[in-house]
Write a structure and sequence with these properties.
Length: about 190
């Protein structure tokens, strides 16, 4: 019986340790891969949220008073989103700060608060400053004057705008997700 045990061969300690080393190196490589995949999935999720918030803002703006919105963008009271220079015209829009200080004021941008239903600014502030999954976002509505058409091609019936969503805290949406912009039009009431 002892002779039978002596003839059986198994793995030596060095062979077992070498196999464990190889398995751990492969497992480490897979761990790094899954960590990168998780980061990528999270940034995609945040980018999708930002796209949905931008679409939500566009839909909200499409339901507002077209005439008053057009008057606001054409007025000197419109919030400057990007300053112009010799080549590019100044770009105007609506930011969370545009109506943030309006109480009962009827001057400046506050004079246009009636473009929103009953002059109620709470819904527009909720659209422009949403918080999703603990991340606070900032939405800027911009009038795209360069895309505006002439009156004979329907320009007086469509108002080109874009909604740009960014996070309030830089990098909160994950690596590589700086902002999302979605473009659309506000239709005149006559063609809605």
């Amino acid at each position: 019986m002892l002779e039978r045990f002596k003839k059986e061969e198994g793995f030596t300690l060095i062979e077992v340790l070498a196999a464990m080393l190889i398995v751990s190196i492969v497992a480490l490589a897979f761990t790094a891969y899954f960590s990168n995949a998780l980061t990528f999935a999270k940034s995609n999720q945040n980018q999708t949220i930002m796209s949905n918030l931008a679409r939500n803002a566009l839909v909200y703006m499409q339901k507002q008073d077209f005439v008053r919105l057009k008057e606001y963008f054409g007025s000197g009271s419109a919030t400057v989103v990007k300053a112009g220079n010799g080549l590019n015209a100044q770009r105007v829009g609506i930011t969370p700060e545009t109506f943030g200080t309006c109480t009962n004021a009827t001057t400046g941008a506050c004079a246009f608060r009636n473009m929103f239903e009953n002059g109620n600014l709470q819904p527009v502030m909720a659209v422009l400053q949403p918080t999703v999954n603990g991340i606070q976002y900032r939405v800027v509505i911009e009038y795209q004057q360069s895309l505006n058409r002439s009156g004979d091609t329907g320009g007086d019936l469509l108002l080109p705008i874009s909604a740009t969503v960014t996070t309030v805290s830089a990098g909160a949406a994950g690596p590589g997700v700086d902002g999302v912009t979605v473009e659309g039009y506000v239709n005149a009431q006559s063609i809605r």
